[in-house]
Amino acid sequence: FQAVLKEFQKAQRLAAERETAYTPFVPQAVPPSSYTAGEVDTRSDESAEQRGLLVQSRRQEVLLLDNEIAFNEAIIEEREQGIQEIQQQIVRYDCSDLLGHVKKNSKSIYAADDIGTHIENSRAATVQAKSHLVKAAKTQRSNSSLTCLLLVIFAIVILIVIIVLAA
After folding, report:
1. Domain locations in the chain?
2. pLDDT 10s per residue in the chain (167 long)?
3. Which end of the chain has fewer CB atoms surrounding its CB within 10 Å, N or C?
């Protein structure tokens, strides 16, 4: 979202720079010598009028761009507020969920009045976990030895097939 905002601001600055640097080219026509002085004045009045219209249309374009920018900024602000509201809802939900867990667990902790029972249960679980780890290590070693043996047998069979085919 921030990247889009920065890109929009960059485009906005570029447009403003180009707008200030741009001056419309209105060619100053040199009237032929056959024109009278009145015709030359009419032509210069028309070109001044054209320049005035061009300046006015440019001002309207600038106003439209400013309005569009203001509208986009309002949309961005509205979306930021929506995001903040969602974040606050998530925090509230997480806090209430955490409070529920604390209440639930605090009841079970205080229900057991013998800390020694908890220690003994932890020790038994640790011993059982240790035996599972030893068993898993033996199984792993056995499986790795079996895999190695199968690879050696497979290599010998391939070697015999190659020798028979070569002979």
Report:
1. 2-111, 120-167
2. 777 788 888 888 877 777 666 555 444 444 455 545 555 455 566 677 788 788 888 888 888 888 888 888 888 888 888 888 888 888 888 778 878 877 777 666 555 556 777 788 888 888 898 888 888 888 888 888 888 889 999 999 999 999 998 87
3. C
Q: Distance (Å, rounded) from C-alpha 25 to C-alpha 154? A: 86
For residue 80, give the nearest of 1, 160, 4, 167 by alpha carbon. Answer: 1
* Cα-Cα end-to-end distance for the chain: 72
- Locate 50 and state its tokens: 């054209």
pTM value? 0.34
